Amino acid sequence: MYLLEEKIYFWLLCLIPVLVVLFIGLSYWRYRAQKKYANKEMLDHLIPNRSWFKPILKLVTVCVGIIFLVLALVNLKAGEKIETVNREGVDIVFAVDVSKSMLAEDIAPNRLEKSQRLVTEIINNLASDRIGLIAYAGSAVPQLPITTDYGSARLFLQSLNTDLVSSQGTAINEAIQLAESYYSEDTEAAKILVIISDGEDHEGESVAVAEAAAEKGIRIITIGVGTEKGATIPIKRDGIIREFKKDRDGKTVMTKLNPETLKEIAEAGNGAYIDGTVTATVIEQLKEELAGIDKVAFDSQQYADFESQFQWFLGFGLFFLFLDLFYLERKTGWLQKLNLFNE
């Protein structure tokens, strides 16, 4: 089993065709310059030991060295050792509001990106809890089932956008109902639902649904993103604001944070409301909420213990670059007698 840790460094392989083009250009320029001042017979007399093969060999050696150095930077990892890991924690489902109102920029850079950063930081501060992800607007859409794979959670989180859900609006009740299906009936782990939203609830049934979820043992924590002052909703094309969202009467829509709704949902769900303005504060308050919850042991899982192999590629890369220093552009004496390359 293999893993490439930093694939972005493969772009450095573009240096190789650049070097080849420069080599061809330099060789052509040198050939033209030599031909200008002397013919072939005279050059053979003036430079009797010049080699056409050695410069090509030097180029190949440098290119091979670059390939190995790039592989070292990519850091190929090999997983051979299998370990059994026991985890203890709770089941946390994140429900992120992806309605158009989350594009408002009353909190930098906008509400949706702020929500993504909040959830990312929360995940980074978790130890061994299982997590799931839901996106919702006018309806709720599952993104990631309950898992311990934090890497996948971050990838799905980064891909959230306001086009994921075709029906617009903010139906927090549907997010709560969908979250109920995430939790296994057999598990004894505590069930936590974290709702990140601006609190604009267009359905109005969320409090009742939260109470029903609490009766099933689900604890709901809400995080408010936005400001009570509010902001308009920009509509961008190619990263440039073209207009602002308008209602049916042609008036510009003003969206505001509604903390009261989120507080009511959290209270009905036996949880707490957290202001999402300051990320560090959110992390601290959420830790306090989770601290008093009993953690249970999950089923043992097997993980491959990946070991970095970059040192081998680094060694070979430096070897080939060092070897290039010993290549001279004139013919090798003892090989000249063999005439292996027909020089």
Automatic annotation (TrEMBL):
Task: Return the PANTHER family for the record.
Answer: LEUCINE ZIPPER PROTEIN 4, SPORE GERMINATION PROTEIN
UniProt source species? Nonlabens dokdonensis
Q: Which Pfam families is this protein grouped with? A: VWA_2
- Which residues are in the VWFA domain? 91-290
Name by which UniProt lists this protein: Ca-activated chloride channel family protein
Q: Tell me where the transmembrane regions lie.
A: 6-31, 52-74, 310-328
Q: Which UniProt keywords apply?
A: Cell membrane, Membrane, Transmembrane, Transmembrane helix
